[in-house]
Amino acid sequence: MNDAGPPPDGNSDLETIRRDIDGVDASLLQLFAQRLQLADKLVKAKAPQAGLPLRPGREVAMLRKLVSTAPAPLEREVVIELWRAVMTAALRRQRIIDVVVGGGRGDPTRLFDIARRHFGARTRIKDVGDAQAALQKVTENPETMVAVTAWPAAPSVGAWWPALSERRFGNLHLIAGLPLLGAGTDEPEAAVFAASPNEEAGGDVSLLLAFDPHHRLQRALNEHGLVGKEVARAEPRVLVRIEGFLAIDDQRAAALTQSGLDSVRVLGSYARI
Q1: Nearest to 93 by CA among 25, 165, 44
Q2: Are the beta carbons of 146 and 176 closer than 8 angstroms?
Q3: Preceding omega of 213 cis (within 30 degrees of 0)
Q4: Chain-centre distance of CA 86, in angstroms?
Q5: Where are the beta strands (DSSP E) in the chain?
């Protein structure tokens, strides 16, 4: 004869909660699978495109919307990490993209960790030492590789950014600043370079490189309606931060040569959350 009787109410409540959690977990799996299936359909519906299947501007715009509408108790960091995992999984179904890391002199592991958190644990990531070596790898593998470097203007990593004016890196573009969460801070910690240009996300910041031997930068920016400032200089080269999105072929940037600058090149843009 069993005299144990019914379980205490507390135990019953626990079992109910656990069953509810199991049900939510099962629903999440189904929804994630559905999300990937829809991403597959989207890829098939679009016209074939050359270059990497990366859309950092679109991703930032999407994440901003998700962060702004996420119900409590979801934190912004959790939302971003969850959706980056989903986006990375969808991207892998289109193409395997490798990441090379370079330029983290002060703390190399920090740069590697930033790349890992953004591109996911399943992505192959290799530290090649310095930023120029990472960029070179991307020029050799433009369809399957991106570079994560220390931020070009970071004072602690040395002035490697003048190399971006070299012809061998002419097909590379800045497409993201990492970590994504950090809008309003001075500069990102890391830059992502790829062989495909970025697209506007809203609230963008652009970087351009120019030769400015006569220190006419600020006057040139004012004359052509650009809001920006010098962030680094290695004579005669100057690295410039521009508020807003500049396309690679933006005529305002090209017109800066009329005001005393030379070899002006839009490096790309980034947007943060």
Answers
A1: 44
A2: no
A3: no
A4: 15
A5: 98-102, 125-129, 145-150, 173-178, 190-194, 205-211, 228-234, 237-243, 262-270
| Among candidate residues 77, 84, 134, the one with its CA nearest the CA of residue 108 | 134
Q: Are 195 and 149 in contact (CB under 8 A)?
A: no
**How does pLDDT run across 92-151, given as a tens digit for each residue?**
998 899 999 998 777 778 999 999 999 999 999 999 989 999 999 999 999 999 999 999
Please indicate, yes or no, if residue 159 is contained in any of the structural domains.
Answer: yes
Is residue 120 one of the residues assigned to a domain? yes
25 assigned to some structural domain:
no
Question: Cα 29 to chain center, whole Å?
Answer: 26
User: What DSSP string runs through 194-242?
Assistant: ESS-----SS-EEEEEEE-TT--HHHHHHHTT--EEEEEEETTEEEEEE
- Number of independent structural domains in the chain: 1
Range of the domain at 232: 52-270
Tokens of 92: 């892998």
Low-confidence ranges of the chain (pLDDT < 70): 1-10, 50, 155-158, 183-185
- Residue 31 in domain: no
Strands 145-150 and 228-234: unpaired
> What single DSSP character describes residue 46?
S
